[in-house]
Amino acid sequence: MKSILQDEKVCWMCKRLYNLRTVRGLEEHHVFQGRHRQLSEQYGLKVWLCARHHRNLRDGVHFNMRYAAALKNKAKRVFCDKYGEDAFFQVFGKIYEGSEEEC
Prior knowledge:
This is HNH domain-containing protein. It comes from Candidatus Ruthenibacterium avium. By secondary structure, this protein is mainly alpha-helical. It has one domain. The protein has 5 helices and 2 strands; from the N terminus they run αβαβααα. A two-stranded antiparallel sheet has the order 1-2. The longest helix has 19 residues.
């Protein structure tokens, strides 16, 4: 997996929340989904997540809006640092207006 958000294959949320390097049972997560999934793939807006942080009803980024927002904010910042804010809106349109809330 090619990602501009991660250098090592560990769960992004475990590392961020608990400073743990979870390496087993990792799943690839595209930050922006639906019709923007292919753009996430193209621009490397993907992270590794353990099953708990990917699909769990309480802690998974598909269900926990706080975690999802933190990941989307990070992806947007990294993309804008690399390509510029105008490029983000040209590529993705106005798909995400999140707060800068961190988890």
